[in-house]
Amino acid sequence: MSTSPDPGAPVAPPVCPRHPDRVSYVRCQRCGRPTCPECQRQAAVGVHCVDCVAEAARAVPSTRTALGGVRHDGRPVVTLTLIGLCVASFVLQLVLPSWTARWLFSPILGFYEPWRFLTAAFLHSPGQYVHIAFNMLALWFVGPTLENTLGRARYLTLYLVSAVGGSVGSVLLATATDSWATSSVGASGAVFGLFGAILVVSKRLGGDVRGILVLIGINLALGFVMANIAWQAHVGGLLTGGLLAAAYAYAPPARRRLVAVAAPVTLCAVLLVATLLAYASVGAFG
Length: 286
Fold this sequence. Notes:
Blueprint: E1 40-42, E2 47-49, H1 50-59, H2 77-95, H3 97-103, H4 107-112, H5 116-119, H6 129-150, H7 152-173, H8 188-204, H9 210-225, H10 231-250, H11 256-281
Antiparallel strand pairs: 1-2
Helix pairs in contact: 2-3, 2-6, 6-7, 6-8, 7-8, 7-10, 7-11, 8-9, 8-10, 10-11
Pfam families: Rhomboid
Membrane topology: Multi-pass membrane protein
GO biological process, one term: proteolysis
């Protein structure tokens, strides 16, 4: 049995449910609850609280690209994060000389410390600012398009697997003598993977790929005519990125979620087997 308050009893002022210490006489137009200025969101009519705004956003179906990626408005957060990690790592290379040696890659070091197959992609030559500038510019040039077309998860997977593929290219294509002791750094393998991916994706969507082919050709040629460029990593990353992007782009719509998992796992397994066979061929396990 409930009782009614006395007519003369004071009534407690309305407070924001999220911030009970804040009095608010403004109410959400959807749920009617009090909402403080911090929790108010301007609507077409009146204001909504943040909870109602979030609920409405969840109710709106996500739009997808032609290849099934979830379209995100705003900044390409994955591309910006990758650039930020590379820049932060480059600063650490300048400040801590041991940082480069700890994470760089060579086929010999990679045999004993496999994580170097990936970590070297976040390093750049400390004395060559053009090196990181070119790679980050290329990443910014093609990354946002792929991020939006493939979706964030598939795009990030593509980048990381291409980075590993670039290191595997150094193992498979370099001679197992002095070249295996030569260290390498840079995001070039991953960037070339994006080049291969943008070529495949553009072809799949019916775009003009002549400019992309010229871009890839020029950059591949530079690796053969300029000193201190690991062209093997470029080729490895290009092939890896192209193959993975082909799996993404040509997957039947009903199988895209399955392919998004199975394709990179299968490709990584192939890269692993190829690398182990290359090590075994020179008696690295002996």
